[in-house]
Design brief:
single chain, mainly beta, Thrombin, subunit H, 7-stranded antiparallel beta sheet, 6-stranded antiparallel β-barrel, 15 strands, 7% helix, globular
Length: 275
């Protein structure tokens, strides 16, 4: 990657709303088939980082400050996630996660950063006006002008357990994006949302910043990373519900379906997709 996509703190209070935090050791796994370089390049060209920066307020709605060298520095709250540009029947869209707490802020600034480092900045009202679909798990936005051409969406409901897929992965320390190999282990309904359970074949951890990353099968977008599966200190799935476990190489991803999300139907009749 020629230009790393990274997010700096610089005296801001960074509240990353993403898939998990901490560290964990994962067992060695049989290596998967690496992504074809041309496919990986196409996937990354279709990927954007979305960041919403809002003033950090207390419970009374008052702006909070950090005292630095005797001066007050205003604090910001930041939501950050990945998104995927797709070109479908009704236009060009961005598919991302619905993990943006700052979406409800009184005011904020939204930045889209594509893989080449190009940035597009919008006000929060302008960002909200782009939302075409939202279901508390996925947001589909009309893509603002100036972003790269989108990829074709696929059908997650045709992506079966055992299929190897490619996942966009973000390194939390550097922000660098890469394409890794995962396998669909199960179909599940995660809190009522049709989803995949994925296993990263080479053991990469799903950590903050991975939410919204695309899941790809045969070069088409079929899913969006929702959250990491947390493990307890023994390496077993943490079922306590406390959110204090360790991130793992296992994750849940929303299954994208043109039958449930007609914006992704590539212009084909929905009936033809569900036969």
């Amino acid at each position: 990657m020629n230009r790393h996509v990274a997010i700096g703190l610089f005296l801001n209070l960074l509240l990353l709303l993403a898939a998990g935090c901490g560290s964990a050791t994962t067992r060695a796994l049989a290596p998967g088939e690496p992504a074809d370089p041309a496919l990986a390049a196409r996937v990354l060209r279709s990927t954007v980082v979305i960041r919403i920066t809002a003033p950090y307020l207390n419970e009374n709605g008052e702006r909070q400050y950090l005292v630095e060298n005797g001066q007050e520095v205003p604090l910001n709250a930041i939501s950050s996630a990945l998104g995927t540009i797709v070109s479908a029947g009704e236009g060009t869209f961005i598919v991302t996660t619905d993990h943006f707490d700052q979406l409800a802020a009184p005011s904020a600034e939204v930045t889209f950063t594509d893989f080449s480092g190009n940035q597009i900045m919008l006000s929060l009202p302008a960002f909200r006006s782009l939302i075409r679909y939202q279901d508390n798990d996925i947001i589909i936005l009309s893509a603002p002008p100036g972003l790269p051409e989108g990829a074709e969406p696929g059908d997650g409901d045709q992506s079966l357990p055992g299929n190897q897929v490619h996942v966009v992965h973000r390194q939390p320390a550097t922000g660098e994006l890469s394409v890794i190999t995962a396998v669909i282990e199960h179909w599940i309904d995660y809190r009522g949302v049709p989803s995949f359970q994925l296993r990263n074949i080479d053991g990469e951890l799903i950590e903050p910043g991975n939410s919204g990353g695309g899941v790809w099968l045969h070069g088409r977008l079929v899913g969006s990373i929702h959250r990491t599966i947390l493990l307890d200190e023994t390496g077993a799935t943490d079922r306590s519900g406390s959110g204090t476990g360790f991130p793992s190489h296992l994750s849940y991803a929303t299954r994208l379906s043109p039958a449930r999300m007609p914006l992704l139907n590539q212009g084909q009749p929905i009936a033809a997709l569900t036969e």
